[in-house]
Design goal:
alpha/beta, Chloramphenicol Acetyltransferase, six-stranded mixed beta sheet, 7 helices, about 30% helix, globular, CAT-like_dom_sf
């Protein structure tokens, strides 16, 4: 039996700040009872085939996120009557293993930052729509920048990295008509290894969070590099069929 001793020193490393009055949450992730979530399974074979369509090697999670993001952008265009909006894509990044020095593995706290990508006319190619490979690349650049920021977060001005990232993201959302996509990767959380005395689970899921365009990724029961990824996608009930009819979603998930 392994004894795990949790650490509760997070407030010492990252003292709390009152940012409530600085943030406008009116346009962000407001609960909506018309939002439902559906599970889409990307098998290991499908992910391998999807990665083969990209010019350079990328992670399983990034390639799946890019495919889903492209489909969601297409759905938003339908909702807007054929017009494209500026799109903000936020990916949660785990801070723990990326600081210098690394934080204790069992440090308690919601230690994550958002890797934020803004898609507008400036980073589109000559094509009318953003190409899939461009989206894969841009998501990677946003993640790598945030990982680099994590390396400096324990230094004297590290707290500013947290604050500036949060404030700039919410200011951007509050000041414009923006399509927001939220991604969180839970594929390494080991849900299928959890045994509370009555065996390991046969199926794991998330609850409906009533937040449109929120995507949670989990590994399936097979797990590891040989397993697939389950994507729980939160959509407005009127546009589920449009998402399901996306060519990439139809080709690589079920």
């Amino acid at each position: 039996m392994t004894t795990i001793i949790p650490s509760f020193d997070t407030p010492k490393l990252f003292p709390g700040k009152n940012l409530v009055n600085s943030l406008n949450y009116s346009n962000t992730r407001t609960p909506n009872p018309e939002i439902i979530f559906k599970k889409f399974l990307f098998s290991n074979e499908s992910i391998t085939n999807l990665r083969a369509t990209n010019n350079e090697p990328v992670s399983r999670v990034r390639i799946v996120c890019a495919l889903i993001a492209k489909a969601l952008i297409g759905v938003d265009k339908i909702k807007q009557g054929g017009k494209s909006r500026t799109c903000l894509i936020a990916q949660a990044v785990n801070i723990r293993p990326r600081t210098n020095p690394q934080l204790p593995k069992h440090l308690c706290g919601n230690l994550a930052m958002q890797a934020v990508l803004c898609i507008n006319e400036e980073n589109k190619t000559d094509h009318e729509e953003l190409e899939f490979q461009d989206l894969v690349r841009l998501l990677g650049e946003a993640t790598h920048k945030t990982i680099k920021d994590c390396e400096e977060i324990l230094f004297s001005k590290g707290g500013d990295i947290f604050d500036n990232s949060t404030l700039s993201m919410h200011d951007f959302i509050a000041n414009g008509d923006v399509n927001c996509l939220w991604f969180s990767d839970w594929s390494k959380f080991g849900f299928y290894e959890a045994d509370f005395g009555w065996g390991k689970p046969t199926w794991a899921s998330v609850a409906n969070m009533y937040a449109e365009n929120l995507v949670i990724l989990m590994e399936n029961r097979e797990g590891g590099t040989g397993g697939g990824i389950e994507a729980f996608v939160h959509l407005h009930e009127n546009y589920v069929s449009h998402f399901e009819q996306d060519e990439g979603i139809r080709s690589f998930s079920y």
